[in-house]
UniProtKB/TrEMBL annotation:
PANTHER family registered for this protein in UniProt: DIHYDROANTICAPSIN 7-DEHYDROGENASE
Ketoreductase domain mapped to chain residues: 14-174
Keywords on record: Oxidoreductase
Oxidoreductase listed as a keyword: yes
Entry-linked SMART domains: PKS_KR
Organism: Cellulosimicrobium composti
PROSITE patterns: ADH_SHORT
InterPro entries recorded: KR_dom (IPR057326), NAD(P)-bd_dom_sf (IPR036291), Sc_DH/Rdtase_CS (IPR020904), SDR_DHRS6-like (IPR051122), SDR_fam (IPR002347)
Protein name per its UniProtKB record: SDR family oxidoreductase
Amino acid sequence: MTAPTSTTRELDGVRAVVTGGASGIGAAIVTAMLARGAAVTSLDRTPDGVPDGARAEVADVTDDAAVRAAVESAAAAMGGIDVVVNNAGIGAQGTVADNDDAEWLRVLDVNVLGTVRVTRAALPHLRASDRAAVVNTCSIAAWTGLPSRALYSASKGAVQALTLAMAADHVREGIRVNCVNPGTVDTPWVGRLLDAADDPVAERAALEARQPTGRLVSPEAVAHAVCYLASPLAEATTGAALAVDGGMHTLRVRPP
Ligand code: NAD
């Protein structure tokens, strides 16, 4: 099925920084924002894969100095920053017995502190904007006890709590902060997990059968939700978490 596209321009004039804009959900967000009229800078550790029409800043979100430089460069090039999408993230498998301290710190450094660093660097620009919004890519892992995802779930639980705390701290400054909580999204990330399985085709079929809709979530579906939360249309929405999971978190639908 071809993913539906927007025909509206609700992000006209909006200047956005999207982390992890070179792949998967982030690249779909960049494309969807450009289509709605935004100027977009991807902040990613690679420029390869950033959709045409967007600027690319190369920085690792674990490097505070590099993040600050990239955010300032983006603000200078775009004339300011109205929207930050904290989407860069990495996965981790295992129970608490499986990951050592170094692995915990590595993942939290990207998923949690990366969100903090980029938002902190962009705050002066967001404060100067009259339509400021932050959208964090969280996960249903923040809500659901997924087996063998202790570290990843804890990192996304922290992003969820951080979303609420930041929403409260900055609401009187006119900065809205929300998150999207995707289910299983058809991105290179999931592709890598499937490739590692003994039978990738059977594994994909099993994964699809577990979805209430019978199919994986498209990156575009997540991107449309992010665009809504980033746009002035969501002027009264802050501190919210929007599930984009095909019903996975809330529905109990038996596989056929
Ligand atoms: P992906 O691997 O396809 O893309 C991730 C992007 O983030 C890549 O471009 C990568 O270069 C960038 N990145 C990773 N670490 C970085 C760092 N330290 N500094 C800068 N950039 C970095 O993954 P995706 O599936 O598109 O996931 C994007 C986000 O969505 C992540 O936060 C992930 O936790 C979340 N998410 C994904 C799924 C899913 O099923 N794919 C589900 C729920 C949530």
